[in-house]
Amino acid sequence: MGIKTYRPQTAGLRHRTGLTYEELTEIRPYKPLVAMYSKSGGRDSRGHLASRHRGGGNKRMFRFIDFKRDKIDIPGVVETVEYDPNRSSFISLVKYADGERRYILAPLNLKVGQAIVSSDAQVDILPGNAMPLRFIPLGTIIHNIELKKHKGGQIAKSAGSGAQILAKEGDYAHVRLPSSEIRLIHMDCRATVGQVGNLDHQNISVGKAGRTRWLGWRPHVRGTAMNPIDHPHGGGEGRSKGGRHPVSPEGIPTKGFKTRENKRTQAFIVRRRSK
Fold first, then answer.
1. What 3 state SS string does the chain have?
2. How would you label 91-122 residue by residue, b for 16+ Cβ within 10 Å and e otherwise?
3. pLDDT at residue 56, rounded to an integer
4. For the sheet containing 101-105, what is the strand order?
5. Cα(186)–Cα(138) distance, rounded to whole angstroms?
6. Which of 57, 27, 29, 17 is nearest to 200 (CA)?
7. Residues in the chain with pLDDT values less than 70
8. Residue ranges covered by each domain of the chain
9. For residue 14, with 0-12 CB atoms within 10 Å meaning exposed, 13-18 middle and 19 or more buried, which class applies?
10. Distance between CA atoms of residues 215 and 237, nearest Å
């Protein structure tokens, strides 16, 4: 897929780039797998601000994606490659032999008309095929990886991402994640062969602030530019660095402060992403 540039007829178009979408084969989504998508604007159930810098954005329709890949030993054929406004990767509509259709993440080099299958045994190592880690050879690039059996894929789902199986020892496989972290994942956890498509997503230049607002992201204001009542870094005569170590608006340390508290899964991390 290529990247297109625009004639600089306006200031916002001068540095803007976008995808050509050559791989897409369908514009409208499959209606039975689409639902209305209501946005929270960063507010929780009480209406309080829980996630800053979120709000607005274009309206979207939610696509139901099959992350579990639990159509076991039922072959399917790829019908379309489509755009999904809710994620950076593309999605593909698969029609299975029993007549059911499901959306899956579109791996790199997945073509319309290609046959794919999800199994609990050894199947061909082809993009789009899913199977437990114990049947995937070492060195294979995988995505949509489960952390718990039958829970559905949780890792390596964004555009261009992929993990690699480094070793197998006992009931666990050593998997190098996109963050370079090496983690132990149980052999019975399912993964999909291949790298997630839409590699050029990382090369897009937004070009103007308004394009970020279309995605639902509001402006990010520095704490040092605020008043003391609004942020711990605020205030000061002239420009100031805040007078304290970096913290969040709630006063929680950040920038180097370790926030991971899940000690139960600490033993599954072989090597942290930060060496």
1. CCEEECCCCCHHHHCCEEECCCCCCCCCCCHHHEEECCCCCCECCCCCECCCCECCCCCCEEECECCCCCCECCCEEEEEEECCCCCCCCEEEEEECCCCEEEEECECCCCCCCEECECCCCCCCCCCCEEEHHHCCCCCEEECEECCCCCCEEECCCCCCCEEEEEEECCEEEEECCCCCEEEEECCCEEEECCECCHHHHHCCCCCHHHHHHCCECCCCCHHHCCCCCCCCCCCCCCCCCCCCCECCCCCECCCCCCCCCHHHHHHEEECCCC
2. bbbbebeeeeebbbbbbbebeeeeebbbbeee
3. 95
4. 101-105, 91-96, 76-82, 115-116
5. 15
6. 17
7. 1, 275
8. 3-202
9. middle
10. 36
Q: Which CATH architecture has domain 3-202?
A: Beta Barrel (2.40)
Structure tokens that stand for 106 in this block: 């579109």
Which tokens sit at 235? Answer: 């205030």
List the beta bridge partners of residue 93. Answer: 80, 103
The confidence score (pLDDT) of residue 150 equals 94
What Å distances lie between residue 118 and 8, 127, 160, 193, CA to CA? 47, 11, 22, 10
Query: If you count them, how many residues does the chain have?
Result: 275
Read off the tokens for 199. 């590699």
What distance lies between CA 20 and its chain's CA centroid? Answer: 21
Minimal CA–CA distance to 254: which of 52, 39, 55, 56? 52
What pLDDT is recorded for position 46?
Answer: 96
Are the CB atoms for 219 and 53 separated by under 8 Å? Answer: yes
Q: Is the dihedral of CA 264, 260, 179, 87 positive or negative?
A: positive
